[in-house]
C-alpha cells in the first residue's frame, strides 16, 4: 500500500469515527431530551439563558477591572464613562505580594492535590479490594462524614494545628485539606468495577497488595485519577476559609486570602480587587483549557457536578 493510500485510509477512518460520534450524540440527545425539535429548542434556550446568567457577574468583574478607581466605586454601570484603563492591573502587578500569594497558592494546591489523590486512592483500594476487620464500620464513617459540614470542624482543627505548632505554616494549611471522603467514595466505586479476574490472576502470579495497587489498579484508573486531581486542585486553589483562619503572616497567605487584604487608606479598591480576581482566575482558566475534556468526563462519570 502506498503512502497516499495509507493517508486516505487514515482520513476515512477518522471521518467515520467522527460521524459515529455525532450519531451517538444525536441519539443520546433524543433519549435525554426527547425527539421533538421544539423540546430540544426549548432546552437549548434554557441552557443559553442559564449560561448568560452565570457569565454576567464574570463579565461585570472584567469590565470593572478596566475602570478608573473612582468610577468603579460608583453604582454599577457597564460602559466606563471615563474610558478604559489598565491602572488597576498596573497597581496590582506592581504589588510584589501578589506574586508571593500566587506562588503560595500554587504550592498549597499542588501539595493538597498530590496528597489527596494518593491518600484517597489508597483508602478506596482498601475498601474495595481488601478484607480486614472493621472495614464496614470505617466505610460507614467515611460515607457519613460526607454529610458533615466542614465548617463545624474549623475550631477543633485549629486547636489541633495550634497544639502541633503548625499555625502559619504550609503544613497547617495543607494537612487538614487532604482528607476528602467524597473522593474516597468516588474512587471506591471506580475500583469496584475493575474485573476481579485480573486481580486474582495477578495474585496467583505472586503479586502482593502493594504491587496490585501500584502496577495494576492505578494504571487502569488513570482517567478517574486525573478527573479527581483536577477537581481537588481547583478546590484547593479557591479555598478561602481554612487558609484565612490558620494564617496571619502575609508570608504564608494564599491568593484568595491575600486578595481580601487589598485595601489602602481610602478603603476597598474595587477596580484593583477585580483586576486581582481576573489574574487569580488565569491559572484555573489554563487548567480548564488544557483539561476541558477530562473535566467534562469527570463531571459526567463521577457525579461531582452537584457538589
From TrEMBL:
The chain crosses the membrane at residues 38-60, 101-125, 137-158, 170-191, 212-237, 270-291. Its main location: membrane. Gene3D superfamilies: MetI-like. PROSITE patterns: ABC_TM1. Residues 102-291 form the ABC transmembrane type-1 domain. It is found in: Cell membrane. It is a multi-pass membrane protein. It holds the Pfam family BPD_transp_1. One of its GO terms (cellular component) is plasma membrane. Coiled coil: none annotated. InterPro entries: MetI-like, MetI-like_sf. Keywords: Cell membrane, Membrane, Transmembrane, Transmembrane helix, Transport. The keyword Membrane applies. GO terms for biological process: transmembrane transport. PANTHER family: ABC TRANSPORTER PERMEASE PROTEIN MG189-RELATED, ABC TRANSPORTER PERMEASE PROTEIN MG189-RELATED-RELATED. Belongs to the binding-protein-dependent transport system permease family. This is Carbohydrate ABC transporter membrane protein 2, CUT1 family (TC 3.A.1.1.-).
Amino acid at each position: 500500500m502506498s503512502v497516499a493510500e495509507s493517508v486516505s485510509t487514515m482520513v476515512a477512518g477518522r471521518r467515520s469515527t467522527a460521524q459515529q460520534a455525532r450519531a451517538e450524540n444525536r441519539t443520546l440527545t433524543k433519549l435525554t431530551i426527547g425527539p421533538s425539535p421544539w423540546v430540544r429548542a426549548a432546552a437549548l434556550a434554557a441552557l443559553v439563558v442559564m449560561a448568560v446568567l452565570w457569565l454576567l457577574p464574570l463579565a461585570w468583574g472584567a469590565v470593572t477591572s478596566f475602570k478608573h478607581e473612582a468610577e468603579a466605586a460608583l453604582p454599577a454601570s457597564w460602559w466606563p464613562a471615563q474610558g478604559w484603563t489598565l491602572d488597576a492591573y498596573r497597581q496590582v502587578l506592581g504589588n510584589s505580594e501578589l506574586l508571593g500569594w500566587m506562588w503560595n497558592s500554587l504550592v498549597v494546591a499542588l501539595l493538597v492535590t498530590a496528597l489527596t489523590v494518593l491518600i484517597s486512592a489508597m483508602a478506596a483500594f482498601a475498601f474495595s479490594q481488601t478484607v480486614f476487620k472493621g472495614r464496614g464500620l470505617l466505610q460507614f464513617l467515611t460515607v457519613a462524614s460526607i454529610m458533615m459540614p466542614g465548617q463545624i470542624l474549623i475550631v477543633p482543627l485549629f486547636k489541633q494545628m495550634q497544639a502541633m505548632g503548625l499555625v502559619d505554616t504550609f503544613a497547617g494549611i495543607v494537612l487538614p485539606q487532604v482528607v476528602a471522603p467524597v473522593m474516597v467514595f468516588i474512587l471506591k466505586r471506580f475500583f469496584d468495577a475493575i474485573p476481579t479476574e485480573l486481580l486474582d490472576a495477578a495474585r496467583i502470579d505472586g503479586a502482593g497488595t502493594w504491587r496490585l495497587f501500584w502496577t495494576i489498579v492505578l494504571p487502569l484508573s488513570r482517567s478517574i485519577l486525573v478527573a479527581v486531581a483536577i477537581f481537588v486542585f481547583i478546590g484547593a486553589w479557591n479555598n478561602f476559609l481554612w487558609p484565612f483562619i490558620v494564617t496571619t503572616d502575609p508570608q504564608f497567605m494564599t491568593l484568595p486570602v491575600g486578595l481580601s487584604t487589598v485595601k489602602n487608606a481610602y478603603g476597598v479598591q474595587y477596580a484593583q480587587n477585580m483586576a486581582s480576581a481576573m489574574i487569580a482566575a488565569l491559572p484555573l482558566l489554563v487548567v480548564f483549557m488544557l483539561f476541558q475534556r477530562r473535566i467534562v468526563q469527570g463531571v459526567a462519570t463521577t457525579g461531582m457536578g452537584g457538589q
